[in-house]
Design goal:
Blueprint lengths: L1 H9 L1 H30 L3 H26 L4 H18 L1 H16 L7 E4 L2 E8 L3 E7 L8 E9 L8 E3 L6 E10 L5 H33 L10 E6 L4 E10 L3 H17 L30
Antiparallel strand pairs: 1-2, 1-5, 2-3, 3-4, 6-8, 7-8
Length: 302
């Protein structure tokens, strides 16, 4: 047994295999230590994530380079076999290869980055990790109303960028246009109602509007797109039931639901101050008490 072990380790190929394994283990240990150490030193979440991903990438690169260097004398002997096997490997691992190509496209094509809100393959969420093969999302929506996390973590193959549209809610223009429709009674003072709505929008969405204006200017300079007003607007139409006011405004892509809550709260507060001059309309029916009926039954006599 000892002779077998001695002869095996005296073989140059076995020695190089052992060296390669030891080298990969050492590189892996160093990468883990660096990631843990720098993770404690860097407080910013975004910077910490990027540093850790960069260290992992460098670790993979050094490991591959070390293995190639270790077996450089054997590369000439195996290149023909590798060429023959390459076609079969490419066919069997085509999804993996496409996902790797997708990772390169995502990294250098500005499709999305960590922290962006995207929709990939019909799934909407915030990007929390971009690996070589898969993108990880913290999902929003589905059974949860509004743009709120539902707790599911979804991993999607990077090959999706070549197969389906990629919807990005935040890359170049991190704002969305949103609308609220408010029905008002026909007898209300429509001028006062419109003024109330405009003041509320200016008050609550003013900061979004200012930031959106600067972002839209950059969009116009970068893309072939026409100028668009980001100012809040109030539009009124009349129908058979009520005056219908549509409130249109821009909002941060992560604050749609809470902004709606603020707007509706302020609308109700302001309407209460009008002493009935402006009131919300609805199709609610109110049943009132019927008047009392005095019914007397007389006995018919023969």
């Amino acid at each position: 047994m000892e002779d077998f072990i001695t002869k095996s380790f005296s073989d140059p190929t076995v020695q190089k295999i052992v060296i390669a394994i030891i080298g990969i283990i050492v590189i892996n240990v160093v990468v883990r230590v660096l990631k843990r150490y720098l993770g404690r030193q860097i407080k910013d979440t975004n910077s910490r994530y990027r540093i850790r991903k960069f260290i992992s990438f460098i670790g993979y690169f050094i490991a591959i380079l070390f293995v190639l260097t270790t077996f450089r004398s054997h590369l000439k002997d195996v290149h023909i076999a590798v060429g023959i096997a390459g076609a079969g490997i490419a066919f069997s691992l085509q999804e993996v290869i496409v996902s790797l190509a997708g990772w390169i496209t995502i990294s250098f094509g500005n499709f999305y980055k960590t922290g962006d809100r995207v929709q990939l393959g019909g799934i909407k969420g915030d990007v929390i990790d971009i690996a070589m093969l898969r993108t990880t999302l913290m999902e929003i929506g589905d059974w949860i109303g509004g743009d709120q996390y539902n707790g599911r973590i979804v991993r999607i193959a990077n090959s999706f960028v070549f197969k389906e549209p990629v919807f990005n809610y935040s890359t170049d223009f991190p704002f969305l246009w949103d609308e609220i429709t408010v029905p008002v009674k026909h007898v209300s003072d429509f001028r006062l109602a419109k003024d109330i709505f405009q003041r509320i929008l200016n008050e609550i969405t003013g900061d979004f509007t200012n930031n959106a204006q600067n972002a839209w200017k950059e969009m116009v300079s970068k893309y072939l797109i026409e100028a668009e007003s980001v100012e809040p607007a109030v539009i009124m139409i009349i129908n058979d039931n009520w005056l219908e006011f549509t409130l249109r405004y821009v909002v941060d892509f992560k604050k749609r639901r809470f902004t709606k809550d603020k707007i509706f709260t302020r609308i109700l507060e302001e309407f209460e101050k009008t002493d009935g001059r402006v009131a919300i309309a609805s199709t609610t029916f109110q049943l009132t008490d019927a008047p009392a009926f005095d019914v007397r039954i007389t006995k018919e006599t023969k």
